[in-house]
Amino acid sequence: MAGVIRKYPGLELLARAAMLAAFMGLGAGVSSAQPIVARSDAQQRDALPSSATKHAESMAAVTAGAPPATSDVKPARRAAATGPYYVDFRARTAATYGHAFVWYGKTSEKQVEVAGLAPAGDEVPYILGHLMFVPSETGATYGDLDEQYLTASYRVYLNEADAKKVFAYIKHQQETSPLWNAATTNCTAFIGRIATFMGMKAPFHLLKPEEYVNRLRELNGGRKTVQLAPDRG
């Protein structure tokens, strides 16, 4: 190729002109591509605040109906709206027709107390308890703290003075309920006595736990707060 260029000097000038044109074209391409990249980056930067805003708005919409995290709870404001203490009448699934019990405690605290009436031991006391009275247990049983087993819940709130009386009554019921029987001293009868002490209307105790808790809510108009009569104590 070099020999051909030496033989025809005009070709050397033509080759240099072509290389210069190619180099200038490449430079023009690079310079024209730069604004496109810059616009792309600018568009991404401009889009970020919008997408972040939409994300924040969507997260706010999702979390609006969810229970507040413990760190987000403001006890003073929440107490003013509902009450500083609560009793939660609850029902959950079980091997047969379910179990009824109560959660109770302070609104601003995560820890809860559990009380309910159940046959102590394994399946044998449970079966015998349909024919006779059997020893009971009145604390938390398997599944009482697990939300996935929950079938019904009715929570009512109390002020501090009333809560002390109700909580003392619940503990008294635990201490004085040594026996369980499916037809008489069962779990629904146990939480029904607590509701009655609180001045609420309680349904007939021979209902399935889920039906009982829902019926309890209906009988009391779904009210959220309870105030004890002056003679309770």
Describe this structure in words.
By secondary structure, this protein is an alpha+beta fold. The chain is 48% helix and 16% strand. It has seven helices and seven strands; from the N terminus they run H-H-H-E-E-E-E-H-E-E-H-E-H-H. It has helices spanning 2-7, 9-64, 75-81, 123-128, 160-175, 187-197, 209-219; strands at residues 85-92, 99-106, 113-116, 118-119, 134-137, 150-158, 179-180. The strands form two sheets. Strands 3-2-1-6 form a four-stranded antiparallel sheet, with helices on one face. Strands 4-5-7 form a three-stranded antiparallel sheet. Strand 2 (99-106) and strand 3 (113-116) form a beta hairpin.
Brief description of this entry?
The chain is of the alpha+beta class and 233 residues long. The protein is 48% helix and 16% strand.
SSE layout and pairing:
Elements: H1 2-7, H2 9-64, H3 75-81, E1 85-92, E2 99-106, E3 113-116, E4 118-119, H4 123-128, E5 134-137, E6 150-158, H5 160-175, E7 179-180, H6 187-197, H7 209-219
Antiparallel strand pairs: 1-2, 1-6, 2-3, 4-5, 5-7
- Structural class comes to alpha+beta
Instruction: Using the alpha-carbon principal axes, give the shape.
Output: globular
**Discrete helix count:** 7
Low-confidence stretches: 1-81
How many individual β-strands?
Answer: 7
Main sheet: strands, sense, barrel: 4 strands, antiparallel
The helix content is: 40-55%
State the end-to-end CA separation. 114 Å
**For the largest beta sheet, what order do the strands appear in spatially?**
3-2-1-6
The SSE order reads HHHEEEEHEEHEHH
Give the DSSP E fraction (strand runs of 2 or more residues). 15-25%
> Mind telling me the C-alpha Rg?
37 Å
Mean pLDDT, as a whole number? 76
